[in-house]
Design a protein that fits this description.
This protein is an alpha+beta fold. It is 31% helix and 23% strand. The protein has 14 helices and 17 strands. The strands form three sheets. Strands 1, 2, 3, 4, 5, 6, 7, 8, 11, 12 and 13 form an eleven-stranded mixed β-sheet that branches. Strands 10-9-14 form a three-stranded antiparallel β-sheet, with helices on one face. Strands 15-16-17 form a three-stranded mixed β-sheet. Helix 5 packs antiparallel against helix 6 and helix 5 crosses helix 7. The longest helix has 11 residues.
């Protein structure tokens, strides 16, 4: 086991013991959900500004103070790294990473390297104060052992490196709960957060956007792709959408509103007409209505089909064919009732709070 900061700057020697230069960086391949083996080491010389990229197969010994090659330098076949190679020092060290398991954003203080299946690989990211002391050669100062390494498994992380690359965003990250994704987006910068939003599935992007703080929503909505904004606002519940538009500057609210389907736009305009702190301003125009002649089983099927478009659903409302409101039925009542029972028989049994 070795840490990246312990080897950066080390002398690199060939098999004849000649010094080639100093280690400037280590390159790995980003294999999502797996440990990443080292592909190249990057070497810099004082005289030559152009760095050398040496395939890791030429490395004989990878020590804390010096790195030895298994051949003389003239026989080493230098190679330009692949475009998808990740520079550990440039793109990971001192940068933000997403801990997918913990749904948090951290700053990387060091990278743990270890042999896995006979390959030296990046296996963990140290986000602790201990790593900072290690980099300053001050580990000895922690005589009471207050600071411990805090390692995040490499397989459970999503490197950010500047701007999230959509083709490398892990499936684990996309499967997080919308509230967790919203917390991550709030911790990222605008470009990173916007890219993450744009990578999500249609339904997930809307639910995630609803969980984001209003002030952050206000900023992100102005940076999202037009198609993404359109799919988000048309999936959001009416009450959430109304709150969003009321929080935006008038010109931007009109712009966002233009993406709405006609029926949804009319409902939103109806609610916006009321003051926020009035009864009308607190209304929600979205609800599930059930015919009194339907059965409990038919009502539950209807709820399942429509529930995805609701933030929460506590009641269904019984309305006859003439549009007359008969009464509400709680979801609890529906779930505990016999599936063959007619809806009209349950209305009277509802307890009003």
């Amino acid at each position: 086991m070795i840490y990246l900061t312990e080897i950066l700057g080390s002398y690199v020697k060939d098999s004849s013991d000649a010094i080639i230069g100093r280690l400037d960086d280590v390159l790995v391949t980003l294999d999502v959900n797996h440990y990443s083996p080292i592909l190249y080491i990057r070497i810099k010389q004082k005289k030559n500004k152009q760095p050398y990229y040496i395939p890791f197969k030429y490395v004989e010994n990878f020590g804390r103070h010096e790195i030895m090659l298994n051949n003389i330098f003239d026989r080493v076949r230098l190679k330009k790294p692949e475009k998808d190679s990740i520079y550990l020092a440039r793109y990971i060290l001192d940068k933000q990473i997403i801990d997918v398991e913990g749904a948090r954003v951290f700053r990387v203080n060091d990278v743990k390297l270890m042999v896995v299946e006979k390959k030296l690989s990046a296996v963990g990211l140290d986000v602790s104060w201990r790593a900072i002391l290690r980099r300053m050669n001050l580990e000895w100062a922690d005589i009471f052992n207050f600071f411990h390494p805090s390692l995040i498994d490499w397989r459970n992380t999503q490197p950010v490196h500047g701007v999230l690359k959509l083709d490398t965003i892990s499936k684990k990250l996309k499967k997080l709960h919308p509230a967790d994704l919203a917390n991550i987006i709030e911790e990222l910068n605008i470009k990173q957060g916007t890219n993450l939003m744009e990578s999500l599935h249609v339904a997930s992007s809307a639910k995630t956007f609803e969980e984001i703080e209003p002030n952050v929503q206000k900023i992100i909505i102005g940076h999202l792709n037009k198609k993404v904004v359109q799919r988000i606002v048309n999936k959001m519940p009416i009450d959430e959408l109304t709150d969003l538009l009321q929080n935006l500057p008038e010109d931007r609210a009109e712009h966002v509103s233009s993406y709405l389907e006609k029926e949804k736009q009319e409902k939103v305009e109806e609610l916006i007409a009321y003051e926020e702190d009035t009864a009308g301003g607190l209304m929600n125009t979205e609800f599930v209505s059930i015919d009194p002649t339907a059965t409990v089983e038919e009502a539950i099927v209807c709820v399942k089909e429509l529930s995805a478009s609701f933030r929460s659903l506590l009641y269904v409302y019984v309305v006859d064919k003439k549009g007359k409101f008969i009464g509400p039925i709680s979801m609890r009542t529906l779930l505990i009732s016999d599936p063959s029972t007619k809806i009209k028989l349950l209305v009277k049994s509802v307890e009003y709070l």
